Amino acid sequence: MADSQTNSAWATLLDVGRPAGGGRRLHDRLAHALRTAIRDGRVTEGAAVPPSRVLAEELGCSRWVVTEAYGQLTAEGYLSARVGSATRVSWAPDPPPRGSRGRPSRTASARPPVRYDLAPGLPDLRAFPRRRWAEAVRSVTGSAVHYDLGLPDPAGHAAPRETVAQYLRRSRGADASSESVSVCSGVTDGLVRTCRALRAEGIGDLAVEDPGWGRLRDAATSAGLRVHPVPVDRDGLCVDDLARTPARAVVVGPAHQFPTGAVLSPARRAGLVHWAREVSGFVVEDDYDSEFRYDRHPVAVMQGMDPARVFLLGSVSKTLSPALGLGWLVAPPAMAPALRAANPVAAAPPVLDQLALATFIDRGWYDAHLRAARRRFRTRRDLLVATLGARLPHGRVAGTEAGLHLLLYLPDGTDTRAAVRSAAAAGLRLADLDDYRTAPSARRALVLGYGNMGDTDILPAVDLLRRVLRTPPRPHEGAHPAAP
Ligand SMILES: Cc1ncc(COP(=O)(O)O)c(C=O)c1O
Q1: Cβ-proximal residues to 348 (8 Å cutoff; 6+ apart), any chain
Q2: pTM for this structure?
Q3: Ligand 1: residues within 6 Å at CB?
Q4: CA of 169 to the centre of ligand 1 (A)
Q5: Confidence band of 22 (pLDDT split at 50, 70, 90)
Q6: Which of 51, 287, 341, 421 has its CA at a distance of 20 to 30 angstroms from the CA of residue 435?
């Protein structure tokens, strides 16, 4: 774009009529539209903007509106005006680094759409309880006292901490009080905070499950810990193998290991606590989806077995939505000062959101939501297991007792990586178990999440999977990255 831009094209380009502009007043909206066009590179450095009188006519506004907008952008350095010459654009966006594609490329947007989402990670987003959540937000916005709106406590607002503590005592068998609970933005955030505190206490090595969720490994590393993968088998973490690492702390998902779905056996639960006592260390319990247990009542958290040695992390990412960014961390009482000291600038989630969660729980809406979700997920899991059994008899399903995903073991030699790629090209999103391992294994398996899947989509999705597993992959088929 340059001087050749016609004036009517300027009016179209600036499109100031849209209310989403930068402010309510017309000159603000015009300044916003022009600033955005310059930043996006739609109006390039050196281009002359139309004379104010001409653009005012074109836009049907007063000349003052245009001179105000030009004046604003001149003051901000986007335009420069010289007496006797046209006002010109004097700023250019940083060019994208060489090799990068800058703005979303056509290739990226041309990726095949996701028709069926069998990747693990999400709850049923269609079933988010919008009406009740909105009511909770509305209610706390009206009732919060004015000092609730001041500087937030990094450990969270006192009232939601008390509510979460009560919830964890009642429903997860935790040993929790408002003093030991922090409200944070999720398990990942809770782990970063915990790792910082461990490091401050002289613990620099953390054992992690292998396979496991890579984000937790990354969180620990980002907090300065060295991570040591420890294998997982059908009874969960191989606790005896901890002794082969220098770690004095371990992060583990006892209720439903991710991604194998293994439930930590009672003997290993006891063994893990014993290990923590022996090494004067800690267990960090990732209780991310334990509310969904189908064959029995959810097992209580390990944290209740030894609150002095176990940190407990949880969130609403699997029960409501990861977009809320709300979770909790229960710390051993003796670690509370280290936790605070090691996280001096940790940001708690917005206070009104914390209060909304407390209201949502206090009014019984969280429990009601969980009851309904549990029923829905159990039916969906049964449907998926039955469909897989009927359509893919060579596969073996595992890890179905709890959570929102299961494992489908496939015959040795199956190219699961290629299957994930071909499936993505056909609009079916799924994940390869190897994506969560630190080294590939001969045991081939897919991780199938059913949380965010419509019931009626299961049959066509499994049929598509069957076709993909039968068809040899074509080269260069793009894959959607798998969550979580
Ligand atoms: C193993 C595991 N832990 C925890 C979480 C939740 O993390 P966050 O609360 O940070 O969203 C997930 C989410 O996908 C997960 O897979």
Answers
A1: 152, 153, 154, 155, 156, 157, 182, 183, 184, 185, 354
A2: 0.80
A3: 121, 186-188, 213, 253, 258, 286, 288, 315, 317, 322, 327, 484
A4: 21
A5: very low
A6: 287
